[in-house]
Amino acid sequence: MVLESLIGEKNIRKHPIYMLLITFIISIGSIIAAYHIAPSHSSVLSVAFITIGLIPVVHNILTKEEYEEAIERKSSVTFFARHFNLILIYVLIFVGVILAFTFAYVAFPADVNQTVFSEQIKSFCWMQPGSCEGSIPLSITGQATAAGLDYCRVPEMQDPFACSFVIFQNNAQVLIFIIILSLLYGAGAIYIIAWNASIIGLFFGEMILTFEYGKAFGFAILMVIGHGAPELFAYVFGALAGAVLSAMVSRGQFLSHEFSTIIKDVLFLAGLGLFSVAYGSFVEGVGIVGYADLSVILGFIYLLIIIFLVFFYGKKRIKK
User: Fold this and answer.
1) How many independent structural domains does the chain possess?
2) Does 74 fall in a domain?
C-alpha cells in the first residue's frame, strides 16, 4: 500500500500515531470514491473501501508483531506489553474514522450528506429521534433542536439491570461477530469497528452543524469516561483475539511450543472483551434510566483500570 510504503511499517509499529493519519486519509478517500462510484450505496461502500484499505496495513503489522511476540513469550514480557501496540492501533483506527466522517459530514453540502451517509443517518435517527424530522437530520431540514436518547426509557425498562441486559445481548452478539470475522479474515473486524465509528462521526458532525457543542462535548466525555470506553475496548479485545488466533493458524503453530501461550492469550482477550461488554452495558443502562452521575463514575473506574494496566504492564521489560 502507498501510505504504508511512504511512512514505513517499522515507523508505524514504533510510532502507532501514524495509524491515525493513515486511517483519516484512507477514510476521506474512501468516502469520496464511494460517492463517485455508486452514490446510492456510498454509505456502506465507503466503509467497505476503508476496510479494504486498512486490512493489508493491519495484517502486515499484526503478522510482524505476532512473530516477534512468539519469541518474547519465552521471556518475562507481560500480556499487555505483548499486545499494547496492536490494541493502540485498533483504537487509533476507530478515532481516525470518527474524525474523517465528522470532517466529511461538516464539509459536504446537506443534499450530498443525505446521499453519502444514508445508512448512518438511519442509525443516527433511530438513536436520536428528536434530532431528526422523519428520517432526515435537522441540520438538513434546517430545524435544529435539542434531543435525548429514548432507548430503554419505556416504563417496563426502567430497571437498570433489565435495560443493561437488553444492551448486553446486542453488544455481545456484535463481539462474537467481531471475533469470528477476525478469525476468518485476520483483520476483518475492522469493518464493524469502522461502521460504528462512522455513525459516531456523523453524530459529532450533526452536533457541529446544529451548534449543539455542549451535547457533542458531553457525548465525547461519555465516550472517554462513560460506557464508550468499555464498549470500544471490548470490540478491540475481541478483534485482537480473533486476529491472534488467525495468525497462529496461518503460521501452522498448532504443534509449536508457543501454542499453549497463544491460546491463553486468545482466551484472555476474549474474556476481557466479554467482561468489557457486560461492564459497558451496565454503565450505559444505569445512565439511560437516570443515574448519569453513577454511570460516569463507573466509566471512570474502568478507564482508571485500563490506565493502571497499561502503566504497570504495558511496557516491554528488557530481559537481563
Assistant:
1) 1
2) yes
Tell me how far apart the alpha carbons of residues 254 and 25 are, in angstroms, rounded to a whole number.
38
pLDDT digits (tens, 9 = 90+) for 176-223: 888 888 888 766 678 888 888 888 888 888 888 877 777 777 777 777
**What per-residue confidence (pLDDT) applies to 130?**
53
Q: How far apart are the first and last CA of the chain?
A: 38
Domain membership of residue 208 (yes or no) is yes
> What residue spans of the chain are helical by DSSP H?
2-7, 9-14, 18-37, 42-72, 79-107, 110-116, 118-127, 138-141, 160-185, 190-209, 213-225, 228-250, 259-288, 292-313
Q: At 132, which helix (H) or strand (E)? A: strand 132-133
Residue 318 belongs to some domain of the structure: no
Domain interval for residue 220: 2-313
Please, what is the average pLDDT of the chain?
77
Is 320 part of any domain?
no
Cell numbers describing residue 72: 518474547
pLDDT digits (tens, 9 = 90+) for 91-141: 899 999 999 999 999 998 888 888 888 888 777 676 555 555 544 554 443
